[in-house]
Amino acid sequence: MRLRPVTAMLRTLATVVLLLAATLGQAQDTGPDYTAWSEVASRAEVAVEAARASDAALADLRAQVADWRRQFQAQLDANTSRIQTLNDQIGTLGPAPEEGAVEPEEIAARRAELNAQLQRLSTPRRTAEEAFSRANGIIGEIDEILRQRQTEELLNMGPWPVNVRLWPDAVRDVSETVQSTVSGVGREWSNPSTRAQARDNLPLVLALAALGLALLARSRAWSEAVAVRITRSAASSSGGVAAFFVSLGQIALPMLGLFALVRAVAATGLYGQRANLILDTLEPMGLTVFFALWLGGRVFPRAAEQWSPLNLPHERHTEGRIYVTALGAVLALQFLFERFAAFERYTIETIAVIDFPLIVLASILVLRMGWLIRRTKAEDEESAEKPFAMRVIRTLGRGAVLAGLGAPVLAAAGYGVAAKALIYPAMLTLALFGVLALLQQLVRDIYSTLRPGHNAAESLVPTLVGFALILASCIPLSLIWGARVTDLTELWDTLRTGLTIGEVTVSPGSFITLILVFTLGYVLTRGAQSAMRSSVLPKTKVDPGGQTAIVSGLGYIGIFLAALVAITAAGIDLSNIALVAGALSVGIGFGLQTVVSNFVSGIILLIERPISEGDWIEVGGQMGYVRRISVRSTRIETFDRTDVIVPNADLISGTVTNYTRGNTVGRVIIPVGVAYGTDTKRVEGILREIAEAHPMALLNPPPTILFAGFGADSLDFEVRIILRDVNWSLSVRNDINHKIAARFKEEGIEIPFAQRDLWLRNPEALRGET
């Protein structure tokens, strides 16, 4: 007893030492620098409140705050498992004593020690949580400012490009740009040192120029010829895969030629500053045009053997290729003009005037493309239900028509920014859907190549991969229509940290963990079922019906445990789900009581086993063999080879006749009638002889011949036979009847049939006599 105060003192001293060590360790911890963060946050809040900084400055400030937020998120995730362990340990000590109550000294000291550790670990977490919330708010305010500016820019009315007073200034600005470009080249040519450098690099210039011109002139034709030859010679699926990858040479080889040609011009040095701007822009412009040429050639192929995602007449393919190529050229010219407009610092009026013809040309092409797409026909045009892909194509065509009609009107009214934000994303959307259709066909061709003989269009794997491609296309589609990269990164950060629903946080990591653990449990369950069915149960004395019940019960238990372990591994607290499950149970009790009743009845059938698979039963006027007992219903195969689905509740609450329960021994009754005047003892002997001679009849007990009574037309007998297997009752009945007919014919015994005499009371009325 005297040692308790000493023990308590030692525990208190140890706690103090641990706190000091923790304080020193925390001082040495390299966590976020909250002083520096406070300065950055204050500067960001001032900039947000003023809302005068440029978009670039706000984007840079947002990136800095996002970096700090990631540090705070890492601090929040630190020591999570340790804090949970401490909370569990404190929970095992029981609730804290009420005021005035005393708990044992050892428990009190342990509680104080655990609370001190918890306080030490929770303090930096609370600080990081406050800083994380502040950073999150600043990022949200910056995003809101940028979105408002983007909206205001779209709704801002600028100069009217149809105003002829603006045209002379625009023409003068463009003329000055052309003259400055030419004069820049002239100045470089008049420079002796530049000409000397060009002469020194002349062999390299000629070689690169020859290579570039050759590739630009012939490489696309070579690639297309090889792709068509592969399509015609190889199998449909493998040829499609090879032709797709070969066709990519229509982009790569011309780009290589353009790269060589640009380097050849650059090696001369005979260009000015504006010509250098053109050289820098040629490669992205060339990539745009060559990609448009490739896409048009794949979506609207020249060869009839090649696959096309649009079911159009082949003579319309040339029209489609022209539209796609022209759209690529317009997009390249727009890119070049934007570079020159930023370099020359054109006025708003000049930009509006030069943009207008490009917008009108692009709108006409998009409009024509929309009309062409809408002419696509389904494989079965007479069907009332159109395929999903056909509905998407028709909707895409209608959207292109609307964009082609609306963009010129907006541009003419002075909303040039809105017109460009409508027509150019519409062009890119058409290209994106074209690439998506080609990739989906490529997936189907690859699947057919890997698994010959399988219809890829009706298989699950290509469908799932195609759905994944559609989901992935949402990212470039959102960027095309004005979403910023920071919007997508913000969405990804939100998904990565998790969505909080009540007290449950669901993140991609936890979701993937849930799927993987459940899949592993499901696979293990199926493996255990297969092992029990094929290796363990056949060596026992359990009947086949009992083996099926054991295997099914093992599957239900395994799937339930797999779901339970998966939910726990994903970090979802089951206590939080208990309230939801309790609320749902009320709705289940009222709305799904029939389903629940069948489910419980199915479990009873598997445990009690009044019927088993393979039993011959009769229920509700339906007779047949039990083929499968599932959780909700039981499948019965009738003698007509039709399946009858019977709810399990009917098998439990109703009357069921089981002809083969326990054993297959059963009785068959065959009625026989003979004419009046026949010797009944003789008939009885003949029938007993026929019954005992049948191989399916049991002799213990022996067959019974019953003189049933005197019928209206015959003396009625019944042949009652106990069969070894009642499943053969119909065959036995058929054999017995054949033998009775043959034997009675030999013995001269008549089998009567009903005869009736018709008496007319007033025959004279039928003859019309009075």
Question: Could you characterize the architecture of this molecule?
Answer:
It is a single chain. The chain is an alpha+beta fold. 70% of the residues lie in helices and 7% in strands. The strands form 3 sheets. A 5-stranded antiparallel β-sheet has the order 6-5-4-3-7.
Brief sketch in words of this structure:
The chain is α+β, with helices and mostly antiparallel strands and 770 residues long. The protein has helices at 3-28, 34-50, 55-77, 80-92, 105-155, 167-190, 192-200, 202-233, 236-247, 249-268, 273-299, 317-344, 348-374, 388-412, 416-450, 460-480, 485-497, 508-536, 544-569, 574-591, 593-608, 648-653, 680-693, 729-747, 763-767, and strands at residues 499-501, 504-506, 616-619, 622-629, 633-638, 643-647, 656-658, 666-674, 704-710, 715-723.
Any key phrases for this structure?
disordered N terminus; 770 residues; 5-stranded antiparallel β-sheet; 3-stranded antiparallel β-sheet
